[in-house]
Amino acid sequence: MEIWKNAIELSMIIYKTTNQGEFKKDFWLRDQIRRAANSVSSNIVEWFERQNNNEFIRFLKIAKWSCGEVRNQTYIALNAWHVNESNFEILRNSSLALSKQISWFIKYLENNRKQWNFKTK
After folding, report:
1. Fold of the 2-111 domain
2. Neighbouring residues of 99: CB distance < 8 A, sequence distance ≥ 6
3. Which DSSP symbol is given to 21?
4. Confidence of residue 92 (pLDDT cuts 50, 70, 90)
5. What digits encode the pLDDT tens for the residues 49-91?
6. Distance CA 82, CA 31 (A)
7. Domains of the chain: which residue ranges?
8. How crowded is residue 82: how many other Cβ atoms within 10 Å of its Cβ?
9. Is there a contact between 39 and 62 (Cβ–Cβ < 8 Å)?
10. Other CB atoms closer than 10 Å to residue 54's CB: what's the count?
């Protein structure tokens, strides 16, 4: 899935950014933003094990909330001088774009429930 690939890419951007400079020494913020970014892809993938439309929508919503948390942590990183303005924009724009993709997919699934209605275990 394209959104899963984009979520993995966001995690890799987060890891690269948090392994540099003062950011890597701020253990709480570094770990928090990594957990939030990893939560996005993990929640998208967890649906594959459940294969239930309503569950998928629920996990996508959790993934979307995690994108919001990533954005919040990027603002904190900017204000703590852990990232410059350019890196901040990359992080913010990546998480915002992914959040929009997830929102679109949620709406698509909600409008096409019958087509995506998988058998439950």
Report:
1. de novo design (two linked rop proteins) (1.20.1440)
2. 64, 67, 68, 71
3. G
4. very high
5. 776 777 888 899 999 999 999 999 999 999 999 999 999 999 9
6. 14
7. 2-111
8. 24
9. yes
10. 15
